[in-house]
Each structure stands twice: as structure tokens, then as C-alpha cells.
Automatic annotation (TrEMBL):
Annotated signal sequence range: 1-17
Protein name, as recorded: Protein CBG01502
Domain of life: Eukaryota
Pfam family of the protein (one): Recep_L_domain
InterPro entries membership: Rcpt_L-dom, Rcpt_L-dom_sf, SPS2_domain
Originating organism: Caenorhabditis briggsae
All copies of domain Receptor L-domain, residue ranges: 197-304, 344-420
Keywords: Signal
Phylogenetic lineage: Eukaryota, Metazoa, Ecdysozoa, Nematoda, Chromadorea
Coiled-coil region: none
């Protein structure tokens, strides 16, 4: 009997020691006030008396489980002031039908590093709306883990599309009443068919050392990838098997050299095949980096792809424009010379040159918004370039030559492009 008691005491002591270590990590990560920190391993009828229910912002590893012997109304009273949670959230093995007590004010800001969210085996849980309205705020150098598992009555099908989970990449939603999203894990030619119904893909996408096969079409429904993407050492001719892909959201981990979309060493790839994809990062102020390197010598991107990738920084850009024009109702013109150019062109294809003798034609550029090529103004008698007041975007696929070159215009007093997007 003594030996059993000793083992129990040792186990409890170890568990409490682990909790103390976890709580200390939270306190080191955030500003936590002692009177607004929950210092206990779980919420029950005893620890509820010590919960910091008067605080708007609470630190702690909040655990609600089979030992939580308080009513739903009591939980509402405990959390009724809380707008912000810092640390971790675990709700496991309960018979709760809803978690609405967590966001009585409409939503909850959850600073989820280091312990994330774990919602597991809540047999009566049916209401996912409260989960949709938890705003997960990740540490920029670490990803939060979010697990929603084995909740047999929960319809979690909308959860992956929730605007508040845009920052969550490391998410696992499995074995609920209805699930959402797929974890990419390691994709192989053999398991490709497992992804045929996936719309959201978590943990990024890596396709390397792979030959094209018809099972790649199983990825055709994927519209949203959370995580970084690498496609390399394949014989793919293009990426049209990802025809529904519209958004990639990666993580730089505060390192500008991190490539979000890395396409390299695919010697047969002539086209990208992603007309509508946009690329961004978890970090709102960071420009995403893309790499196009060591592809087929004739590799080209369409004008539409260039527009979709307007806000991307390239590590390498080994590409040219495809000869097919942008499918749009906006007036498009090919540039041969300013004298020959039509008026009212919103889109111009080609390198725009304004030189001596072109001054009388510059009004033709007053409506131009897009130039697919470079802009050179040289040896002119222009005094200003107000005629370019609408110019917003210049796309030039050359890594060493200047996009804009203005030189030897002796009367030019002011240079301003008020609409240009950098």
C-alpha cells in the first residue's frame, strides 16, 4: 500500500512541476500581472474561487476537463470580463455543448504561443461558432498549434475558412462530426488520392523529386495553402493541377531570406499555370519572397500571373512574359513608338521610350495604368511628367536593368509618379 501511495505522490509532484515550468514560459513570453494570472492546472469547484474573473486580460494555461465540476453559468461568470487570453487553452473530455462562455463580447483575442489550442474528445460539443470567433495571435517566430480532435458531434467544416484563423498554419481538425482542411504531411505519389477533397491545406506543400502522374489532379480543389511551398526536381511542365489555388500564406519567421513560394530545378517547366494565386505572409509588414530558378529556358509567366504576384519580392526571376495577352476589358496596346501609339491605352505591352521629338505625344499616356516592360525618358525637353499621373504598376522581368530610367532631360524640373505602387 505504501509503495502505491509513493508512486501516486511522485506522479502528482512531477505533473505539478511540469505545469510550473509551462506557466513560467508563459510569464516569460508575455507581460503577466500576478492578480490576473491563473496559477492552477485545471478549473474545478475549488480553483474557480481563485480564478481572476475581474481581469480583462488573463495569463495561464486554461484547462477545462472531466474534473471541471462547475456549471456552464459559473464558467460564464468566470470569463465574463475576459477579452484577451495569453498562454494556452485545453478543453478535453467534457460534455459541454458550447464554448460561448469564452467570448461573451463577440470574440476573444488569444495570444496562443507557446501552448496553442487543444479541443479533444468533447462528446456533446455541437457549437463551433465560439471557436470561429477566437482570434489566434501567433508569435511571429513560432507557430501556434491548434488541435480539434475526436469531437463526435461537432461540425467543424467552416472553421478553416474563419477570418480569425488566417494566422493559424499548424492546425489539425480530425475525427469530428465534420472536419475541415487537410494536413499535408509528406505527400507522395501513392497518397495523392487522399487529398482529392481538400480545399484548405495546412503545413505548406512540398513536391520534390517527383514525376508527373495523373494522381496530381487530386490536388485540383485546393484553394488555400497555409505554409510555405516548394516544388523542385520534378518533370512538371506547369502547375495547372493546382488550378483552384488562389492563396498561399507562408511564414518567414522574421527572416527576409525565407522563400514562401520556391519553384526551382524543374527543367521541363515552361509555364507557371497559376493565373489567380496571391502570396503573403503571417507577418503583415513583411513582403513575401518567391523564387523562379533553373526552369526551362522558355519559361514564361502570363500578364495575369504578374498582376496576381504584384506584391512579391523575387529571390531569382528567371522568366519572360508569355506572348498571350491579358484577358481583360481594359484597352490594351503594344508599344512600338510613342508616335504610333493609340490614345487611351490603359495597358501597354513593351518597353516605353520617350525621347526627343516625342513631347507632343505624351498626352497619349494620361490614362495608362499598367506597363509590362520598362519606362525610359531620355533626351527630351519635358518640364514635368504629369501625364503619367495614373501610372500605378510597371512589370519588368529583368534582374539587372532598371525598371525606370530617366536621364539627360535638361528642362525636367520635377519627377513624380503619384499613383505608383511600390
Amino acid at each position: 500500500m505504501f509503495s502505491y501511495l509513493l508512486i501516486f505522490v511522485i506522479l502528482v509532484s512531477t505533473t505539478f512541476s511540469d505545469f510550473e515550468t509551462d506557466l513560467q514560459r508563459i510569464k516569460e513570453e508575455y507581460t503577466c500581472y500576478p492578480n490576473c494570472t491563473f496559477n492552477y492546472t485545471e478549473i474545478n469547484s475549488e480553483t474557480a474561487k481563485l480564478f481572476p474573473s475581474s481581469c480583462y486580460s488573463i495569463c495561464g494555461l486554461i484547462t477545462i476537463n472531466e474534473n471541471t465540476d462547475v456549471s456552464f453559468a459559473t464558467l460564464e461568470k468566470l470569463f465574463h470580463r475576459m477579452y484577451t487570453l495569453k498562454g494556452g487553452l485545453r478543453i478535453e473530455n467534457t460534455t459541454l455543448r458550447s464554448f460561448s462562455f469564452l467570448q461573451l463580447h463577440g470574440f476573444l483575442s488569444f495570444f496562443c504561443f507557446p501552448f496553442g489550442t487543444r479541443i479533444v474528445n468533447n462528446t456533446e460539443l455541437v457549437d463551433a461558432e465560439a471557436l470561429e470567433n477566437i482570434v489566434h495571435v501567433s508569435n511571429t517566430s513560432h507557430e501556434c498549434k491548434m488541435e480539434i480532435l475526436d469531437n463526435s458531434k461537432l461540425d467543424a467544416s467552416r472553421l478553416c475558412e474563419s477570418q480569425f484563423h488566417n494566422s493559424v498554419q499548424n492546425i489539425e481538425v480530425l475525427d469530428n462530426g465534420k472536419d475541415c482542411g487537410c494536413s499535408s504531411g509528406k505527400i507522395t505519389p501513392r497518397n495523392l488520392p487522399d487529398f482529392k477533397n481538400c480545399i484548405v491545406l495546412f503545413d505548406g506543400l512540398v513536391l520534390t523529386n517527383m514525376s508527373y502522374n495523373s494522381n496530381l489532379k487530386s490536388l485540383s480543389k485546393i484553394a488555400n495553402i497555409r505554409g510555405n511551398v516548394e516544388i523542385a526536381y520534378t518533370n512538371f511542365k506547369d502547375l495547372s493541377f493546382l488550378k483552384s489555388l488562389s492563396k498561399i500564406r507562408g511564414n518567414t519567421f522574421e527572416n527576409l531570406e525565407t522563400v514562401i513560394l520556391d519553384i526551382h530545378d524543374n527543367p521541363k517547366m515552361k509555364r507557371l499555370g497559376l493565373d489567380s494565386v496571391s502570396v503573403d505572409t503571417l507577418e503583415q509588414d513583411w513582403v513575401p519572397t518567391m523564387n523562379l530558378e533553373n526552369l526551362h529556358p522558355d519559361f514564361c509567366i502570363t500578364y495575369q500571373e504578374a498582376v496576381s504576384l504584384s506584391y512579391v519580392r523575387f529571390k531569382n526571376l528567371e522568366a519572360k512574359f508569355c506572348e498571350t495577352e491579358w484577358k481583360t476589358d481594359m484597352k490594351s496596346c503594344k508599344f512600338k513608338s510613342l508616335r504610333e501609339l493609340e490614345s487611351d491605352c490603359i495597358i501597354i505591352y513593351g518597353n516605353v521610350l520617350i525621347s526627343s521629338g516625342d513631347e507632343e505625344y505624351v498626352e497619349k499616356l494620361e490614362d495608362t495604368v499598367y506597363i509590362f516592360g520598362s519606362l525610359t525618358i531620355q533626351n527630351s525637353e519635358l518640364e514635368n511628367i504629369r501625364f503619367l499621373k495614373m501610372l500605378g504598376w510597371i512589370y519588368f522581368l529583368h534582374e539587372t536593368l532598371p525598371v525606370i530610367h530617366i536621364t539627360n532631360n535638361k528642362d525636367l524640373k520635377k519627377v513624380s509618379l503619384p499613383s505608383i505602387v511600390y
